[in-house]
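Notes continue from the previous slide.

Worked example: a multi-chain complex. Inputs as given:
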Amino acid sequence: MTGTASTVNTEELHESPTLALRTFDSIKSDIINGELAQGSKIVESDLALKYGISRGPLREAIHRLERIKLIVRIPHAGSRVVTLDTRMMEDIYNARESLEGMAARLAARLMSDVEIESLSKLLDQHAAAISETDGKVYFQREGDIDFHYRIAVASQNQWILEKLNGELYQLIRMCRHQSGQFPSRAQTALDQHRQIAAAIARRDEELAEILMRRHISGAWEIVKTILEDQND
Amino acid sequence: MTGTASTVNTEELHESPTLALRTFDSIKSDIINGELAQGSKIVESDLALKYGISRGPLREAIHRLERIKLIVRIPHAGSRVVTLDTRMMEDIYNARESLEGMAARLAARLMSDVEIESLSKLLDQHAAAISETDGKVYFQREGDIDFHYRIAVASQNQWILEKLNGELYQLIRMCRHQSGQFPSRAQTALDQHRQIAAAIARRDEELAEILMRRHISGAWEIVKTILEDQND
DNA sequence: AATGCTTAAATTGTCGACAATTTGTGACTG
DNA sequence: CAGTCACAAATTGTCGACAATTTAAGCATT
């Protein structure tokens, strides 16, 4: 670990060894950024042409996108980009709450002292970034996910890590990206992160889980009102 | 809902509309039943021949099996049937504990009165089956999962339901099936199920979640010792 | 005899063409 | 004029062949 990066790029940097995986990454970005609109129909031959590959690997890419719920597929009837409604996001946030709560509990049990130290430094960097930009931290989005990502890794639970990082965070990124700017919650979020980190440092599994769950359910309350205001 | 079925078949009964999906189901059964041994190599051309299809749909089936973790895949290097070690099962049970805890909480909040009544009747049927067979309930396996399945449905959380039913339960079934007979825990399990159902009927979200988590973590302690004894 | 390189076999990745299914269109009938 | 059936277009599902990559085996070299 270099310790210099304030944001961790969770994507693979080295080119994927297969066409299908590279295309999967491309389409994933296009969906998250909104270049492929929500609910728009996916026609295999069109996309194959657009990305310059044949239908075989493209189909695999689509299947992988279905796996992480960015695409909805119906046999013989084709596939569409997912449409994020409030109902679905509530499911996501509830699942995230329980999973990350467990992750925080496990992290409190298993994290090494040097990891805990490193986590603390990460939060210092976030604090610095907040005061520098006077609360309008642009990278708060990624920085926030960065903190949660570290907890997930520290849990040493592969299943949970994979679901959070590969699926839930993607959907949350997409939702954030396509819902305009969020109110600057950077300072309160950081405070809560600090409390969680402190509980972990104290090896207080119970408290770490409770604080993490409260943190996420609080975030959901905000997102919920935004989504509801949007659709009225 | 008919109310007559004591065990719910969670698989699709009507033939799947596509070759890939049918083959997916076949291979899935073969893996869970142990006809395809853990860790054995999967060669696409061989399996395609065995199931009488071409490599295209077979590849899709394999991808779906990878998705639910019954197969592990490495690009260009082929795929193998998963090997269930203690480490992995611990991840599974920890994830299950948090997810089903949340499901029980949501069920306590959202379940309709008639659903609660039906759940109670299901437990009566389980009790009858236990006394009939004098504790040696053969279908306890499925019956147990049946109860948990109902809670997952009642949570009305699609994401959680899909992960539990499509992924975690499959792995647990496979683990049970390939670890010989488990000690008859039918009576204690039923008692705990009754307590959970009672908490749900009382709309006590907090208690429902706690009891469900305790129930599952207790089950893990048993499974854990079995797995450890096995590998020594 | 052990190690490293070269080559051959086996296996996966990719492609384009064909078959099966669904969806949309339009004529026909009540 | 509404509803239904048949037909045609578009799209997905399936297949077999070819290309790229990994794994293994065999040979030469130290």
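Summary box: Residues 1-13 of chain A have pLDDT under 50 and may be disordered. Strands of chain A lie at 41-42, 71-74, 78-81.
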